[in-house]
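Structure (tokenized):
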């Protein structure tokens, strides 16, 4: 096992920093780090039979990190600072793009999260940094959206943009209504008109013909489309009303 914990051959601006349980490892392009409860792994996870002996590995590529699930039975999760968890199935792999900082999360005994933090900012540019060009900005929406529609989309996507893990889910109609100062039925009507317009432009997951959509709840498909295409970003959240007081009930 290579002790990459002491590796200082690479320049600081070319290394990926991995932290767990008070220890830190520095790995550079072309190097890898193994994670698991086996003592032969570089990052020794807790002695918990719910964790795989060889749970995963991190491989540093030119501009990101490859996260590989080395377990035969247990999935792992790549958790960005904000947004949905990315599940990596056993024997599968995924890159860290576009996230410069992320956590690799394993499920331990009683569902306890075992988290390894990875800082790849030296390799992966922040996705919020825009390259200035003379060309027109790429059009990400197939149609022109009204201010009301954009506000509803911002309220819908807010948890996906600012929260992580299990809390990174589309807002409920009641939550959206409070952030907009509107009744939930108004929000439902705007979402309905958005869904009908976008499904006509070929956006998937927005009709009852899509078998993966439960009942008539199209919030996930709509929110994922808005976030992934950049139609809604953190900047749009500034137009929402202040956060409501804690303790208010939520309705889907």
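Design, position by position:
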């Amino acid at each position: 096992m290579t002790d990459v914990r002491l590796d200082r051959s690479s320049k600081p601006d070319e290394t990926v920093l991995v932290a767990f349980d008070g220890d830190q490892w520095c790995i550079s392009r072309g190097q890898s780090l193994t994670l698991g409860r086996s003592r032969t792994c570089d990052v020794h996870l807790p002695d918990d039979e719910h964790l795989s002996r060889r749970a995963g590995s991190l491989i540093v590529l030119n501009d990101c990190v490859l996260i590989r699930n080395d377990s035969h039975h247990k999935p792992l999760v790549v958790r960005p600072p904000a947004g949905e968890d990315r599940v990596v199935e056993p024997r599968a792999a995924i890159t860290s793009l576009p996230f410069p900082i992320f956590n690799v999360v394993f499920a331990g005994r009683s569902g306890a999260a075992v988290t390894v933090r990875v800082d790849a900012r030296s390799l992966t540019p922040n996705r919020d940094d825009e390259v200035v060009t003379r060309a027109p900005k790429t059009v990400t929406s197939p149609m022109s959206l009204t201010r009301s529609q954009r506000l509803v989309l911002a309220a819908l996507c807010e948890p996906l943009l600012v929260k992580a893990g299990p809390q990174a889910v589309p807002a409920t109609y009641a939550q959206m209504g409070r952030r907009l100062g509107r009744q939930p039925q108004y929000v439902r009507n705007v979402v309905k008109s958005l869904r009908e317009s976008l499904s006509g432009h070929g956006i998937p997951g927005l009709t009852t013909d899509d078998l993966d959509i439960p009942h008539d709840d199209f919030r996930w498909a709509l929110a994922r489309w808005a976030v992934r295409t950049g139609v809604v970003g953190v900047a749009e959240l500034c137009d929402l009303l202040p956060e409501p007081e804690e303790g208010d009930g939520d309705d889907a």
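Reviewer-requested clarification: Confidence is low (pLDDT under 50) at residues 5-10, 129-133. The helical segments are 147-162, 173-180, 184-199, 219-228.
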